Amino acid sequence: RQYAALRGALSKWMESDGEEAVRRVRSLTGSRTRSDLVVDLYLEWLQSEPETALRSIRQAPIDEDPEIEDPRFFLLNIVDQKIPELALRLARSIPTAAWAQLSEEKISEILGFWKSEHLEVAVALLQQLPENFSPRVTFEVVDAWGEEDPNAALEWVLAHPAPDGSGDSRVDSLMGALTRQDVAAAIARWDTASAEQQGKWLPTLTREWAIQDPAAASRWAEQQWQRGYGIVALVRGAESWIRTDAAGAAAFLKEVLP
After folding, report:
1. How far apart are CA 95 and CA 93, in angstroms?
2. Which tens digit of pLDDT belongs to each residue from 58-84?
3. Is 144:122 a contact under the CB 8 Å cutoff?
4. Strand, helix or coil at 103?
5. 160 C-beta neighbours (distance < 10 Å), count
6. Cβ neighbour number for residue 246 with a 10 Å cutoff
7. How far apart are CA 209 and CA 205, in angstroms?
8. Cα Rg of the chain (Å, integer)
9. CA torsion through residues 125, 127, 131, 133, sign
């Protein structure tokens, strides 16, 4: 009853000065009550004045109580259900500092939840993580993101390498997904990569391309072999070609191999 009365009074206050009402709530001593009220008031504010509310959410201080998860994460869940058109913008309004007090396990839990509920929100949250996060917590989201937009996911993974090299398999997988989706885009990305990256990506690119067009993939791989990139990619392409046109593959190999 006391909470309801306080909530009603603050709701009235919100009509005239939302920022001041929220600031008053943040000064309350009960952490759980404070968090619940902040979520309730922001939800109401987002429905009436979304631009002002989002700006306030972005600038809101971080709760110093380590036992209380930042209310913006709770709010995001409710907004995604009640005002879905604002969910992405709210996700991008959660500051990097809000993640700093969370454990690796909690970050994984949050990202895993949103990967299942709303992948676009998960990707938006991913891009708000602090610089010192462990890339391992992102792998599930990256894998799902790669199925929809492998090029964007690939660029993000390359920009956030795992110190232990555990992201290398994701890079390879994303290059394969990009090739399956758009061979021209994959080749264009390969062309801009470093020589080291090109060498790593070449077999995967050729293998996936060869599933679609083994002759073209094999001839392209042969060109790269002539440039000194090794014969593995050429073998991958020829293997696929043999399955669909053994005679044509044999003639090609006879032509190019010493």
Report:
1. 6
2. 988 876 666 667 888 989 999 999 999
3. yes
4. coil
5. 16
6. 10
7. 6
8. 26
9. positive
